[in-house]
Amino acid sequence: xxxxxxxxxxxxxxxxxxxxxxxxxxxxxxxxxxxxxxxxxxxxxxxxxxxxxxxxxxxxxxxxxxxxxxxxxxxxxxxxxxxxxxxxxxxxxxxxxxxxxxxxxxxxxxxxxxxxxxxxxxxxxxxxxxxxxxxxxxxxxxxxxxxxxxxxxxxxxxxxxxxxxxxxxxxxxxxxxxxxxxxxxxxxxxxxxxxxxxxxxxxxxxxxxxxxxxxxxxxxxxxxxxxxxxxxxxxxxxxxxxxxxxxxxxxxxxxxxxxxxxxxxxxxxxxxxxxxxxxxxxxxxxxxxxxxxxxxxxxxxxxxxxxxxxxxxxxxxxxxxxxxxxxxxxxxxxxxxxxxxxxxxxxxxxxxxxxxxxxxxxxxxxxxxxxxxxxxxxxxxxxxxxxxxxxxxxxxxxxxxxxxxxxxxxxxxxxxxxxxxxxxxxxxxxxxxxxxxxxxxxxxxxxxxxxxxxxxxxxxxxxxxxxxxxxxxxxxxxxxxxxxxxxxxxxxxxxxxxxxxxxxxxxxxxxxxxxxxxxxxxxxxxxxxxxxxxxxxxxxxxxxxx
Length: 546
Ligand code: N01
Known about the structure:
binds 3-acetylpyridine adenine dinucleotide; five-stranded parallel sheet; alpha/beta; FAD/NAD(P)-binding domain; 32% helix; 2 domains; eight-stranded mixed sheet; 546 residues
């Protein structure tokens, strides 16, 4: 690393600070982008972060049971062999607290915190065409004037609390999992209600149930889940990871979703029922997202997918003892993995506890939060604590909650009124010099995130470096490149079963009024990386450079 500039002063209300570049966010993406621009390019750059520390998603999502579903040996930065040698994960899947330790370790190792301003939420970013600068304002009233603006705001950072009438009158306490109190929540002796059975609810329920007097889970859409089979890592495996860190990195660049395992070449529909059962059984025992990789036709052929779906439904009915609860949990309306597939520790087993009740809010929806608890169309459930595991305004939400305006005052919320529109998921026409990391239109949430993040941050860094070398000041996606890319994103999604999960946040369907558009690029990380490389090699084809 070279060219680290001097310490930058921190700004206060009314201050105007001029920089080469500004990064919004200090999670996995923001930290690495800051490092690239500061230490590789020697730019005058800062990151602004709404949280009180680094971590992004992991800073906010401290709910009980919060753990990553990528295995730890692929859930880290790979840009620094030294960092890979120095860090050692303790479990198969890293938990929230350990990920926070890791990100702090990385931030300290590369001395990043001195260029991050914490507790600083960006409210607006307006492009001034005459000056070719972005004017970025914060909640505290500071202004940053910068040439390049990079959003590293995460895909799942805008908490969705459904607009139930009466929430303000609830006499107990309520929390959204994505904005969990740092001091934790004591469930001892409490009647807890949890709304939502996505990845979060599925992780939280067993941990809450173990402590609470009673847990009532309000389920609208039943969900698949496969055991994670988390374990402490053995010393031999830790040694293996150290010795093979580079090979593992290469593998994550060769696999469809940036994971450490490959999708099997066989087809479920061409495998005998007996053989399939053995394969699924072995995958169930091994645990984790690898279940999805057992057959190559699982996400493209409904008949193939049905074989996996039926296997999991049978498992649920075997595990859950009460037949009515088992029926509700296994009445799943979408193909397996068409929604983000959760992995769990004792989720279905939790329903065998005497202190856990499942309430179906599909047939009898939640009508209101009352002072005493939750009222559905059928009954009222008295509660001391309500946990909203109700997800996020995903992918576009974090961008649209800032007032972003491009050339001629063009508002991003208008450009994206019918769904996100960009080129390569990296740039929006009409918004020069604004880069977005792992937003819509890129593999992002369909990929192991650190892999997607490093690819984006490296591409952006190389692009800015190229512009500097060529003496160029401005880069902007061409409108026709955006048209073609949006069509490509739709087309590749439609070749899969993914758009068939109608309630999925991939489609924005969880937010009332949000346009129903499949947001991430489903063509796979390998193909996406190639496209981005080709575009760069052809002098940033599809962009206007001036
Ligand atoms: O959110 P979700 P999440 N009334 O949107 C329900 C990542 N993640 O926080 O399906 C009643 O998936 C909603 O019901 P329905 C991962 O990418 C990763 O769980 O809309 N219910 C659903 O059950 C994941 O996909 C990890 O019918 C309502 C739930 O709330 C993403 O984050 C761990 C409702 C929301 O599920 C989001 O997961 C955790 C209403 N009005 C999260 N509104 C790991 O790495 C919503 N729901 C392991």
